[in-house]
Write a structure and sequence with these properties.
- This protein is of the alpha/beta class.
- The chain folds into three domains: 18-83, no CATH class; 97-149, no CATH class; 172-344, Ribonuclease H-like superfamily/Ribonuclease H (Nucleotidyltransferase, domain 5, 2-Layer Sandwich), CATH 3.30.420.10.
- 39% of the residues lie in helices and 12% in strands.
- The chain is built from 13 helices and eight strands.
- It has helices spanning 18-29, 34-41, 45-55, 71-83, 97-107, 112-122, 131-139, 179-183, 227-241, 245-248, 285-295, 309-320, 332-344, and strands spanning 56-61, 64-69, 172-173, 189-196, 205-211, 217-222, 251-254, 272-275.
- The chain has a six-stranded mixed β-sheet, sandwiched between helices. It has a two-stranded antiparallel ribbon with strand order 1-2.
- Helix 1 (18-29) packs antiparallel against helix 4, helix 2 crosses helix 3 (45-55) and helix 3 packs across helix 4.
- The longest helix has 15 residues, at 227-241.
- It is globular, with a radius of gyration of 21 Å.
């Protein structure tokens, strides 16, 4: 049921209504970009791009195949997905700080530091405990959360860094990548990788693209791990951002996988493309860390095709809505929207 009360600041993560889908259909028909539609509806751009993918159908007009978004198709897909979903965990309504931390860790899969840091940054509680104390309480068994519930415990490698000779050269080496990309001071520099499920050649794959400054992540489900498939997916991304694509995507850093062989063609759109050294995943550390977050939901060996597009979108939404200590406990989505506002205001 739609809310009858108007509010200029709609609640975040609220599902799109059918009226909003009709507006999206009309605006898309006028040739509006996903960003423009998101601003008119006061919605995150990821919500709009996901809805456009969900409700776009093939049509034949004047003997030609075209793709068009229809509100009816988007609503039908949404209702079908809702019938097959349910709450994963019971939502706890509690104002105490400890209960809040437990809730965010259990329901939202946040880390202890993310829950504590976000609460401190927003001034949500008058009295709080530090991250170390919460970990101590978990070790003592005083919380509902147990050590087995913690996402992971990292081990730092003590091996020396050494670069192997790159036998496959798909383009410019990361060695000539400008220093300001490494500093993360400028928006628009991305890292890209693929996530495999099973070893089956018939299985689908995930294309993960992470912006280095904001840590905002795009996750796209692709039918195969080939250069042609990756190139087609980037054509779709270029269409989503329209004429501002080269402002949003200034550079890409990839490994030397054959699926990225066609990335150098993006130079035609003023996008710098750089390739890491062999066996040097740490040179795309941001992307690798985010792939680790994806693995919390999609373990190795599990078929990607077993997950619906709706499920992949929920993973993307969770990652972009997760507060990060390195971002001052803001979320990647918040910072990404701020950067887009600056770009499209020009």
């Amino acid at each position: 049921m739609d809310c009858t009360q108007f509010t200029p600041n709609p609640r975040k993560n609220k599902h799109l209504s059918f009226k909003e889908r009709i507006r999206i259909e009309l605006l898309a028909g006028e040739g509006k970009t996903a960003y423009a539609i998101a601003k008119l509806l006061n919605r995150p751009i990821n919500t709009i791009t996901n809805e456009l993918k969900r409700g776009t159908v093939d049509q034949i007009k004047q003997g030609k195949h075209v793709q068009m978004y229809y509100a009816d198709a988007g609503q039908a897909r949404y209702e079908a997905n809702r019938r097959n979903t349910g709450r994963r965990y019971e939502l706890l309504q509690c104002s105490e700080f400890i209960s809040h931390v437990e809730k965010m860790m259990i329901d939202e899969h946040w880390s202890v530091d993310a829950a504590v840091g976000r609460a401190a940054a927003t001034g949500q509680f008058d009295k709080m405990l530090c991250t170390k104390t919460i970990y101590n309480y978990i070790d003592l068994g005083l919380l509902k959360v147990k050590n087995t519930d913690l996402p992971c415990k990292l081990r730092r490698s003590t091996k020396k860094v050494r670069h192997r000779i790159n036998k496959r050269k798909l383009g410019d080496s990361i060695e000539i990548r400008p220093s300001y990309v490494e500093d993360r001071e400028e928006f628009g520099h991305w890292e890209i990788d693929t996530v495999l499920g099973s070893q089956s050649k018939e299985d689908e794959h995930l294309l993960t693209i992470v912006e280095r400054k904001t840590r905002n992540t795009l996750i796209r489900k692709i039918p195969g791990k080939t250069a042609e498939v990756v190139e087609k997916e980037f054509d779709r991304i270029r269409e989503e951002f329209g004429s501002r694509f080269h402002d949003v995507f200034k550079s890409l850093t990839a490994d030397n996988g054959s699926e990225f062989a066609s990335l150098s063609t993006l130079k035609e759109h003023r996008v710098g493309v750089y390739f890491t050294h062999p066996y040097s995943a740490f040179e795309r550390g941001t992307n690798e860390n985010h792939n680790g977050l994806v693995r919390r939901f999609i373990p190795k060996g599990k078929k990607i095709s077993a997950y619906s597009q709706e499920a992949i979108e929920r993973v993307e939404q969770w990652m972009n809505g997760l507060p990060r200590k390195i971002l001052g406990y803001k979320t990647p989505e918040e910072l990404f929207e701020e950067e887009l506002d600056l770009i499209y205001a020009l």
